[in-house]
UniProtKB/TrEMBL annotation:
Keyword Transmembrane attributed: yes
Protein name, per record: DUF3159 domain-containing protein
Domain of life of the native organism: Bacteria
Lineage: Bacteria, Bacillati, Actinomycetota, Actinomycetes, Jiangellales
Record keywords: Membrane, Transmembrane, Transmembrane helix
Organism: Phytoactinopolyspora halophila
Pfam families: DUF3159 (PF11361)
Annotated InterPro entries: UCP010219 (IPR016566)
Transmembrane stretches, start-end: 50-70, 77-93, 113-135, 147-164, 184-204
Annotated segments matching region Disordered: 214-233
Length: 233
């Protein structure tokens, strides 16, 4: 809840933004879910025709890319989505199994879960890497032990996000439930991303000690790779 401005200076331990405002993600999550939904709908409406489902997905991907370019997105960013749909289309046309259109999504979530887990273990949590890059901090946040710990705990939430998708998609893919896969692909896009952003932000805020200046102001501290200094009392 925002407090009305009374003219006082905002305390340094308050952050006016959230991960959602810093990282965004809503448009990308929604856009990424439209081609799979189009494939499932086209496949079902065309009498379980894989080629027509592929056409529907490619048309949706091309329309999204055109919209992004018109809105000023970089060409590479706009074409990445088309490339992903193209790979999924090639896979499903090769295997002839409609559910395999979602195989790329399955592998992507498995790879992401592994990458985020490894990043936590090696003390380079990807949430810190991403937010630090957005804020132009490079790796300065790693010299702040409190931020390093907070980003590590927040990154665990992102691992759970990918595991949730795997837990839902894998049995549906194994059962060949194409329409259910398309439906869950939509339900687990922006709603799940929004929940992940909100919970990981809460975890970060709860993890930072009282008086910490916040994400934008890493406090200098002992580098995580260095042994703790001895203090005389």
């Amino acid at each position: 809840m925002r407090v009305p401005d009374s003219g006082a200076t905002t305390p340094p331990d308050r952050e006016p933004e959230s991960l959602a405002t810093l990282l965004g993600g809503r448009r990308g999550a929604i856009d990424a879910s439209l081609p799979p939904v189009a494939f499932a709908a086209g496949w079902a409406l065309a009498g379980r025709s894989i080629p027509l489902g592929v056409v529907a997905a490619l048309v949706a991907a091309a329309a999204i890319a055109a919209w992004r370019l018109w809105r000023g997105a970089r060409p590479r960013a706009a074409l990445v989505g088309v490339l992903g749909v193209g790979v999924a289309a090639l896979i499903v046309l090769h295997t002839g199994r409609a559910a395999d259109f979602f195989l790329v999504q399955l592998l992507s979530n498995a790879t992401s879960a592994l990458a985020w887990t490894v990043s936590i273990i090696v003390r380079w949590p990807l949430l810190g890497v991403v937010v630090g890059t957005v804020l132009g901090q490079k790796a300065r946040w790693r010299r702040d032990p409190a931020l390093l710990r907070a980003y590590s705990l927040g990154s665990i939430i992102w691992v759970f996000q990918y595991l949730v998708r795997l837990a839902v998609f894998t049995p549906l893919w194994a059962a060949g439930s194409v329409v259910a896969l398309g439906t869950m692909r939509a339900l687990l896009s922006w709603p799940l991303v929004a929940a992940c952003l909100a919970v990981s932000w809460w975890v970060i805020r709860r993890s930072l000690p009282a008086g910490h200046p916040g994400l934008r102001h890493p406090s200098p501290g002992t580098p995580p790779s260095a042994p703790p200094a001895d203090h005389e009392h």
